[in-house]
Design goal:
single chain; about 500 residues; mainly alpha; 19 helices; globular
Length: about 500
Amino acid sequence: MSVPEGGSLTEGDLKGPMFALAWPIIVTELFQVAYNLADTVWLGRLSTDAVAAISLAFPLIFLFISVGGGFTVAGSTLVAQYTGAKSEGSAGTVAGQTLTFITLIAIVVGFVGFLATDAMLGVLPSSPATAGQVIPLAGDYMRVFFLGLPFLFGFFVFSALMRGYGNTRAPMVVMFISVLINVIIDPIFIFGFESNPLFGMLGLEALQADLFAATGFDGEGVAGAAYATVLSRGVATVIGIYIIFGTSAGPDVEFDDFRPQLRYIKKIVSIGVPSAVEQSATALGFITLTAMVVTFKPEVVAAFGLGNRLTSLVFLPALGLGRATNTIVGQNLGAQKPDRAESAVWLAAKVGSSVMVVTGVLAFIFAEPVVAFFLPTGTPSAAQTIDLGVEYIRIRAFEFGFIGVLQVVLGAYRGAGNTKTALGFSLFALWLGRVPIVYLLSFQFGFAETGIWLGMSVGQILGAIAATAWFTRGTWKQSVISSEPSTT
């Protein structure tokens, strides 16, 4: 069984192992956000419409990514429980089955997404300015992204399987390499070798002129950001596959583990389908929210997208603790130690809520300089976007402490394999919280864009309260492999 540097996940003190498991996850998630922020920074130098385009594209892309993402949760949970039960052979088999299954899903989903791009964008109601200036750019980005979806899914599977095994440092290192590649090639694919701000920052205008004279490459604009992401993710996937199959850093996977085995596929599907539905429902919720947002002017759309990217950055401690909780709960339930699993959840919830409250205070204080960093100043459009983005961040700062608790509790449900419960509370927070509240405040009660910001925050607070109250019942303390004999 994998043992983090801080100690065993199933024996002894919890604080050290939890920290050792969580901090690489947080850093990995930070690198994940760095992908998106790199796009935002460089596309912000291109135009406000470019930022708005990826704001529209991501909810639609996430709808398709969520299908495979749900099954990575199943792989992580099963690997964690088999590892806790010291059944390394079964953990390796689950890893092989999950990788094969999700690769096939990625190919199908990417192809369907590519064909459906225009239809999906056409469904969104939008103002004339957004329809004419933003929608075509979003389409360019999405088509490239969908064609490269198998490369993205490959890294997601690698990261989830290694996390379930208890090795969170390997995905962190691979992610760093991938982000470094992306940061370097992103401005080149976007701007080419003409008016590229990167060369200007480095004082390499003469080199830029020579490269443009030799290649004539003036960039791909918004689509260039997608090309850079796909290429850098492809490198991460290749490295990740090598680590799983060529080293002893993760589950022991053999070639026979790729042969379909109905027993494991049933488990992957039974755990993965609710998670896939959860993530798909979340994606549909954000599409619904986006459909409401695009009825406003482009500056509101851009502020919404930028605000979401920045809040995703400050949510990283909560997300990291939630995913660490998933692994710790899974391994302890696999080892038949439900009380230790519960203690880990409460410890993570206390730490997560405390850290996020402090983060919320800092976000409220420094919202303006942070938002302004990502957009050029000096134009009325940028100034309006900055003002709207600052208001968004400051309102959402009040939910941060609740997010710390919600992510940990949902991670506990998933680690137990109780993905239906996680699905229920995610739907509650989004579809009974965020979506109707945003609609009522923005369109019925006249709060306009401020109603969007308020609804986003209140929905998460309600979800955190409900999920925590249900958790105290203790009905989640059951391993999904409890009926199986473990092997050593």
